[in-house]
Amino acid sequence: MKLxxxxxxxxxxxxxxxxxMSVLAFAVFYALGHQPWRNLISFILDAxxxxxxxxxxxxxxxxSYNGSELRFYHGMTIGFIVYLLIGFVFSLFFAGFINWIVPxxxxxxxxxxxxxxxxxxxxxxxxxxxxPEAFFQEQVEGIRQITRSQLVLDVFLKRVLIGLFxxxxxxxxxxxxxx
Length: 179
Description:
By secondary structure, the protein is an all-alpha fold. It contains 7 helices and no strands. α1 (5-31) packs antiparallel against α2, α2 (40-65) crosses α3 (72-101) and α2 crosses α7.
């Protein structure tokens, strides 16, 4: 079965645009001092960007390139390429950001994560039955051992997971019934 070549064309266009939009959103949140790696509004905005660009790509393919016909596999294929590209573009930016633009980012990230953990210490320790202090110290050590590559992989996987949930919904909503 040969795949329509317009699928790739449309998906790449929207995937790259969505990746740039995701980078722009991160840059704006960071410039405003909102720590986008731990901000709920930033996460919701990422989900909206991924959903919007998947929807636009699938809809454009259906309307402009496929005679208003769309099968589920068309939508899933387009969405897959779009959200992978969004994740890839953002991950490339993020890798450059934490390595060259803000080289102290990892130390700042670790410090903030440990502070957050200390704020929630009592709540966490209530849930542990055996040796709660040792458990807490293990958590702190785990945070201290985070690497840049783990952070880059984390941002990529978050975008992919969002896309995995959003794309089937959009594909089902836009598909046409077979006759």
